[in-house]
Amino acid sequence: MILDERWERMSTEELRQLQIERLQSILNRAYRNVSFYKQLFDEHCINLETIKSLDAVKTLPFTTKEDLRKSYPYDMFAVPLRDIVRIHSTTGTTGQPIIVGYTRNDLRHWTQCTARMLAAAGVSEHDVVQIAYPYTLFTGGFGFHQGAELIGASVIPSSSTTSPEKQIDIMRDFKTTALLSTPSYALNLAAVLEEKKIHPETLQLKVGLFGAEPWTEALRGQIEEKLHISAIDNYGLTEIMGPGVAGECTEKNGLHVNEDHFIVEVIDPETGGVLPPGEKGELVFTTITKEGFPLIRYRTGDISAIIEGPCPCGRTFCRIRKVTGRSDTLIFFEGTSFFPSQIERILLEIEGTSPHYQILLERRLNIDTMEIRVEISSEIPSIDEMKTLEQLRNRILKRIKYDLNIEPKLTFVEPKSINPETGARAPRVVDHRK
Ligand code: ZN
Prior knowledge:
Bound molecules: zinc ion
Structural class: alpha/beta
């Protein structure tokens, strides 16, 4: 179902005209209200009067994650705080978190965008939607929640803090038809189903919208098979808006970008040059309606490509390929899969360790083994404190088993042996299985 026929089926000509008008307005607002952009445009001798076509976008400088980190907390906001009605942030696991603010209009647009994604996946007012994303500073939970309510679905904010066992109970008893979570979390739920010997056909579940981490077609196959659902991909990032930037329709062949709110480009990550449709490169977004936190040519670090040609679903918004690459890569192990960043997240939550780790994978006699080496925090008095270390090891392994359903070997190594103060960091994943 197409939620916003008026926008999602606009003619290309009308859409380009709308984009250029909105672009001119956002550039002027960013220049006037964000000192970072005033300085950046002045430095690059950008005359905003000359930006009269979409082609001229490529003459504008990029905004990087580093720029946003330096602006912590509020320097990139384009309106006074009194006009901000919601604040979210990135996790900041790899540096200073990025704080984003939404005005009332921004929230309205965000709601509309996630509602479109849900409708495109086939969710309607007849559905019972279980949202197992965190309801925190992270944008996933709230972003989809408001869109699902707009559609008129019955929304269950089960959040990711509910245990997988409890999620399954809710799913069965509340007759959930649509699940929203990260793809890896969906796999955890599938594992619990298997454990409890609950056949997926006894549930009402029919569709899942998954995102917030890159996932493969193989993983989609697994989720669809284990949960007996159609698994739909969506893409978004906190800096740009959160979920709702792009999402698949039921064709499952590329993610439609909400082009009335964003201009998408794919660039060569080395040269910064714009690549033609079909070629793989780094996704770059310009927000053209954001009031609180406008971004001009933001480099996402995510690898994709623009798909040419119309989609059979009738939407005219362009499509991007499933995001396949990030600095992180998915690890398949013992029938499950996870991202190294998930190990990192666990370590960050447990005192006494550092987020510096290395995953070693080997295959002996057809059996895969995994060892995780973790740098001990320098706050732990001595690596010889056997009892403390044993307790720490058990805590970490329990969390890993609980979150990822794997049982690796865990070895502690001296502080700074993986991430030395000088010289290169050891590779995060060493896979000797191939
Ligand atoms: Zn489509």
